[in-house]
Structure formats: C-alpha cells, structure tokens
From TrEMBL:
Residue span(s) of domain PROP1-like PPR: 18-101
Alphabetized Gene3D superfamilies for the sequence: Tetratricopeptide repeat domain
Species of the source: Symbiodinium microadriaticum (Dinoflagellate)
Pfam families in the record: PPR_long
Protein name: Pentatricopeptide repeat-containing protein
Length: 112
C-alpha cells in the first residue's frame, strides 16, 4: 500500500500537481499507512517542482515526528525550492541541517 501511495505522489509531482500530491500524502496517513523516506521525498519533490518552498519545508520539518530521517533527495529539493526564490539564507540553514543529519548518521554507524 505504501508503494502505491508513494508512486501516486510522485506521479502528481511530475505532473506539477503539488496540491494533489500533498492531498495524496496526507490521505496515506489517514489510511494509517506510515510514510517513509520515499513518500516524503516524493511529496517534497512535488512541491519543489512547482516552486512551493513553504510546504516543502513543512514536510521536511515534519519528518522527525514520523521517525523518518531526511535523505539527500529531501534536502536537495528544499534547497532547490529556496534557490528558485533567491532565499539563500534559508537554503544555507537547510544545508547546515543536512550536514548535522549526515554527521549523526555517521556517528550511529560507527557504533555498529
């Protein structure tokens, strides 16, 4: 079920239907299907493709609530959305967040 929702979100994004992509993403939660990196990255990328930086950032910020670690696709899509609006300071803040997330992942891997 999760793959179906993620595929639908991705298809909406490719068709520049960011609102439909977000509705589908939130419908996934209503159907009690847990989001993962792929579903989040598909939704964030859909927002980025339609130059919607605010919902992209909201999704990125919501990931820890669902115990999902942002991947490079998520970070890059949000940074790209900021770039399209010339919001370099916000892009830099996300870049710093990305670096700290990667560092945390490496620390966790070193403990294995």
């Amino acid at each position: 079920m999760e793959v179906t929702f993620s595929s639908l979100v991705s298809a909406c994004g490719k068709g520049l239907q960011w609102q439909r992509a977000l509705y589908t993403f939130w419908d996934m939660l209503a159907a009690q299907v847990a989001p993962n990196e792929i579903s989040f990255s598909s939704a964030i990328s859909a927002c980025e493709a339609s130059t919607q930086w605010q919902p992209a950032l909201e999704l990125l910020s919501a990931m820890p609530e669902f115990k999902v670690t942002p991947n490079h696709v998520c970070f890059n899509a949000v940074i790209s959305a900021f770039e399209k609006f010339g919001l370099w300071q916000k892009a830099f803040q996300v870049l710093v967040q990305m670096e700290s997330t990667i560092a945390a992942i490496w620390r966790a891997l070193e403990k294995l």
